[in-house]
Amino acid sequence: MTWLVWRQHRNQAYFAAAALALLAVALLVTGRDMASQYHSALASCAASHSCGNLGDSLILGSTPLTLLVGFTVVVPCLLGVFWGGPLVARELETGTSQFAWLQGVSRRRWLTAQVGWVLLAAAAWGGAVSGLVTWWSSPQNALKHQNFQPGQFDIQGIVPIGYALFAVALGIAAGALIRRTLPAMAVTLGVFTLLRLVIGQDFRSHYLTPLTSTFSFLHPPAVPKGSYWLVSSGVVGPHGQVPGVSSHGGPGISFGGVHLPIGHLPSACQALVFQGPARFGSCLAAQGYRAVINYQPAGRYWAFQGIETGIFVLLAAALIAVTAIVVIRRDA
Amino acid sequence: MASSAQAAIRTSGLSKRYRKVTALSEATISVPEGRISALIGPNGAGKTTLLRLLAGLARPTGGDVAVLGARPGQDPAFLAGIGFLAQEIPLYQRFTAEDHLGIGAHLNSRWDGDSARRRLDGLSIPLGQKVGTLSGGQRAQLALALTLAKRPRLLLLDEPVAALDPLARRQFLAHLAEAVADGGLTVVLSSHLVADLERTCDHLILLAASQVQLCGDIDTVLAEHQVLVGPRKDTTAIERDHTLVHAVRTARQVTLLIRRGGPVVDPAFEASDVGLEELVLGYMGQHASPAPARLTMIGEEQ
């Protein structure tokens, strides 16, 4: 079976290997530059004891490269659409399943070999791309503490492996159920994108209960250490939580990184918004207002990576089970 | 019907329903080992469905089926005994003949690649060329060679010659006959080209309207039937003694295809033997919508 799997998919493998090699060259070359830039900046700021605001002064990486790295977020989806979608669908569509499934190999073994090798390849490619991106981003991560943020979280660490496995399993299952290649590819694209968005925006922040921290407006807010993920921020007034609290959207003002919904603040203080944080802050403090942030601490980064990967791997396993039932039980 | 040999195929009440459509209804057939059986029937009669059920590609919705003594399934032992060639000849268009020989060699425990190569060489079919660029006849020959290389005990062929020109068709059937002559092979061959089948086959399964009309040795089946031509008169007496398959009535005379229940004694009717084509058309006409052209066919051949 391995022979057949390789014969059928070797062109895809060559193409993917070439694309991966190109990405590797681009990232290795620019990543080495960035790393040495970062280390020399670190050495010189240590000499002048000014490393505290290195993150504001040092800009690493060119825009095209940063875009390219951000673009790797679509790699699992591409694997799902182009490797997963046609795997079973094309055989059923062209009728070659009748040829393949009447050789001296059971459908179960045929499917095990096909699915096994393609999933293995998906994990390898997902892992390789993610490994390169994680290594390339390490100076940025150290500088800006951004690897827990949505967007960066999705292309670093181990989650891309889970996404790749899920996407390919989704493509295979869609193909087995729909039995047509192009519709299966389209469904894979749509369902994968939708599910990633929903899980990223609505579920991920609830994997573990966010920590809450409140602080007075009299001092600059004591933000958590390291690469924490700010889930939401707002204001607690004398009558409880001020509505409209969110880490994004709505008219507001940023106070030391905390988003304040300006319409719900006392009108006496609203007038002081543009007169500097000190006067504005002390007005709010005098009225009994305190800032509050909900966040996931940096120490939970790998727990979150593990949970999210686990969810997608379990979904992939369920889809493969569905595929097996469909391929073995349904008519060829 | 000869039943001394063990049956390669035996079904009873075999049925296949797709949501609302019955593709095959209560089929009970038996094909002895070593026969070449012609599976005949109009389009949509259930020929493909029957062959797919026998090959284990589809699951029956009712009845029993035993092929080479086992229930059709997906286990290697069953698959090793079955050769199946579908109407559409589904091969990998972007693979070469050599690639297909490789697949066969890797996926089958018993594989005779040498004989397949010899057969393809003899037909000067290029092994290194993509299958998609071969002619229809070459593709069919390649598919037959690949199917025979498995050394199956039962060969199921679903209109394999439908797309071929007469010369390619003759070559194909000649190779098939050669392979059967080598021994140990039972064949079920579906086609609606009765002339081709008459030359090649010695057993008959006649399907119409999703039901088995006839199943048995061609000679026996033909001997059981007779064509009667006589004056146009009441035929109830004949219908009482025999089974009337098909009748064509013109202004002056009537032509009857009957399955004999005994000797024909009515002197008003002239009895004659029936040919395979007549027989097939008679049974098909029985189930066809009464189009005039179809109804006159038997009469015309008298």
Identify the notable features of this structure and list them briefly.
heterodimer, A: 332 residues, alpha+beta, 11 helices, B: 302 residues, alpha/beta, six-stranded mixed β-sheet, four-stranded antiparallel β-sheet, 35% helix, 28% strand, elongated
How would you portray this structure in words?
The complex is a heterodimer of chains A (332) and B (302). With 332 residues, chain A is of the alpha+beta class. Chain A has helices at residues 2-47, 54-57, 63-71, 75-94, 96-100, 107-144, 159-178, 181-203, 267-270, 277-286, 301-329, and strands at residues 211-216, 229-237, 240-241, 252-255, 258-261, 290-296. Chain A has a four-stranded antiparallel sheet with strand order 1-6-2-3. In chain A, strands 4-5 form a two-stranded antiparallel sheet. The longest helix of chain A is centred in the first third of the chain and has 46 residues, at 2-47. Chain A is elongated and about 80 Å long. Helices cover 35% and strands 28% of the residues of chain B. Chain B has helices at residues 47-55, 76-81, 97-107, 113-122, 136-149, 166-181, 194-200, 218-223, 236-241, 276-287, 292-301; strands at 7-18, 21-27, 30-32, 36-40, 62-67, 82-85, 154-158, 186-190, 203-208, 211-217, 225-231, 243-249, 253-259, 270-272. In chain B, the strands form three sheets. Chain B has a six-stranded mixed sheet with strand order 6-7-8-4-9-10, with helices on both faces. In chain B, a hairpin with a 2-residue loop joins β9 (203-208) and β10 (211-217). In chain B, α4 packs antiparallel against α5 (136-149), α5 runs parallel beside α6 (166-181) and α10 packs antiparallel against α11 (292-301). The two termini of chain B are 28 Å apart. Residues 289-302 of chain B have low confidence and may be disordered. At the A-B interface, α1 and α5 of A face α2, β6 and α3 of B.
